[in-house]
Amino acid sequence: MKTLYLPLKKEWYEMIESGRKTEEYREIKPYWAGRLLEVRRDFAGDFQAYEDCIDIMKEDCIDAMERLSAKFKHFDVVRFSYGYTKRTMTFECKGITIGKGKPEWGAPKNKNVIIIKLGKRL
Q1: Nearest-angstrom CA–CA distance, 85 and 71
Q2: What is the mean pLDDT of residues 49-58?
Q3: Is 12 left (phi over 0), alpha (psi -120 to 50) or beta?
Q4: For the domain that residue 37 is a member of, what is the CATH number?
Q5: Looking at residue 19, what DSSP letter applies?
Q6: Angle (nearest 5°) at CA 5 between 39 and 122
Q7: What does pTM read for this prediction?
Q8: Which of 7, 8, 56, 103 places its Cα 20 to 30 Å from the Cα of 35?
Q9: Residue 35 and residue 60: Cα distance in Å, rounded?
Q10: Which pLDDT tens digit goes with each residue over 16-41?
Q11: Number of domains in the chain
Q12: Tally of CB atoms within 10 A around 58
């Protein structure tokens, strides 16, 4: 089972724990591209390939990502921790995509983000 580990601040941890928040967001940045994207093997060590994917994600163009042979990695579950403590919770991962998130759940207004969709709590 492939697990994505994510630390959260108190506000977001408690919203997910209570069931009010069903998505987690990450900014479109090189760090998250490296963690969440699979890039074609011949581009794997090429920083420019990740930069191209980041530019494409900001434009919300999944088709263009596919032309670069980039796709989001598959994760079975997401394990959240309360900051960097031992307090954790685990959810099914229903997929990762790009889009506009809900500002009340922490997404910036009018900006694309990486959306990690959550399923049931395990």
Answers
A1: 31
A2: 65
A3: alpha
A4: 2.30.130.30
A5: T
A6: 115
A7: 0.82
A8: 103
A9: 19
A10: 999 999 999 998 887 888 888 876 65
A11: 1
A12: 13
Q: How far apart are CA 55 and CA 66, in angstroms?
A: 14
Distance CA 79, CA 35 (A): 15
Q: Are 113 and 98 in contact (CB under 8 A)?
A: yes
23: containing domain: 3-121
Tokens of 28: 């479109």
Question: 15, 97 in Cβ contact below 8 A?
Answer: no
pLDDT band per the 50, 70, 90 thresholds, residue 69: low
How much is the pLDDT for 84?
A: 93
User: Cβ-count burial of 43 within 10 angstroms (0-12 exposed, 13-18 middle, 19+ buried)?
Assistant: middle
pLDDT, tens digit, 9 for 90 and up, residues 107-121: 988 888 889 999 999
**For residue 92, what are the CA distances in angstroms to 23, 72, 75, 107?**
11, 16, 9, 21
What is the SS3 string spanning 44-109?
A: CCCHHHHHHHHHHHHCCCHHHHHHCCEEECCCCEEEEEECCCCCEEEEEEEEEEEEECCHHHCCCC
